[in-house]
Amino acid sequence: MDRWVEETFHPHWRVRLAADEVLHEVKTDHQDLVIFKNRTWGTVLMLDGVCQLTTSDEFIYHEMMAHVPLMALDKPKQVLVVGGGDGGVLREVLKHPSVEKAMLCEIDREVIDTALKYYPEIPGNTFDDERSVVVIADGRKFVAETDERFDAIIVDSSEPIGPSAALHTPEFFAACKHALKDDGILVTQNGLPFLFPDQLRDTTHAFAGLFDHVAPYMCTQPCYFGGPFALNWASNEDDHLDITAKKLAKRQEKRGIETRYWTPAVHLAAFALPRYVETVVWQAIFDGRNDRAKNGRGKNKNDKKARA
What we know:
It is a single chain. The protein is an alpha/beta fold. It folds into two domains: 52 residues, Roll (Spermidine Synthase, Chain: A, domain 2), CATH 2.30.140.10; 250 residues, Vaccinia Virus protein VP39 (Rossmann fold, 3-Layer(aba) Sandwich), CATH 3.40.50.150. The chain is built from nine helices and 14 strands. The strands form three sheets. Strands 7, 8, 9, 10, 11, 12, 13 and 14 form an eight-stranded mixed beta sheet that branches. The protein has a four-stranded antiparallel beta sheet with strand order 3-4-5-6, with no helix packed on it. A two-stranded antiparallel ribbon has the order 1-2. Strand 5 and strand 6 form a beta hairpin. Helix 4 crosses helix 5. Homodimer or homotetramer. Pathway: Amine and polyamine biosynthesis; spermidine biosynthesis; spermidine from putrescine: step 1/1. Catalyzes the irreversible transfer of a propylamine group from the amino donor S-adenosylmethioninamine (decarboxy-AdoMet) to putrescine (1,4-diaminobutane) to yield spermidine. It catalyses: S-adenosyl 3-(methylsulfanyl)propylamine + putrescine = S-methyl-5'-thioadenosine + spermidine + H(+). This is Polyamine aminopropyltransferase.
């Protein structure tokens, strides 16, 4: 009989995946890690009882994390990925020919090593690319102390529990803002808003208190059980959001980037939020703007509700 590996993140219900073959299981200094084969999902990685990726659908998350911010930029050159030791986001970042340095800051070297050993199809040759720079460090500390300035910072963290909780705080986002160029873009994952609207609310509130423009967007990630998956965007440059499908298509063609999920139409549609998500986002932006005004940091002169 197959072993069943259960997600333990949800307090009132469970999802179990058949582990046809357990490839690797270990408790590191930072997290509990298990990798196994499943006939539907391919190779599955679970950290601390939460499904993080499968080789069947990883392209969706990684493309939307990377191409939504980078396609909005004219010529992204310096990109930082915080977390993402599996190499999937880094792989997509390096598809952009203008990128001169793609830095990955991962707290746990074993995440990278296990990716290369057990699902090498995800990173591919990413870590051998001469533009890749891998730093094994606490992402919060690295961002706070770096002197470099990035066109985009992509926070590919796990859920806000355990060590990853530090990558979901206003203090961390403020450090990210400092490490961005003036027109840079910050993107982070925000979980499942149907089940955990507080995650999206808290990040949006923090973003609105720091940046002129906040724009959560969504995708459908099959292995993240519980509804559409949210990501969040922040920038001080409004032109990044006022891009057309025609311009996106032209950039994709010029850059020679092939995708399986991201398209210019999907890019634009991802920012169209369901009402239950809009309600959370609008209130969080309103509260964040008020906090910003009270703290004397100024108010965005061009608020646009969910795409403020």
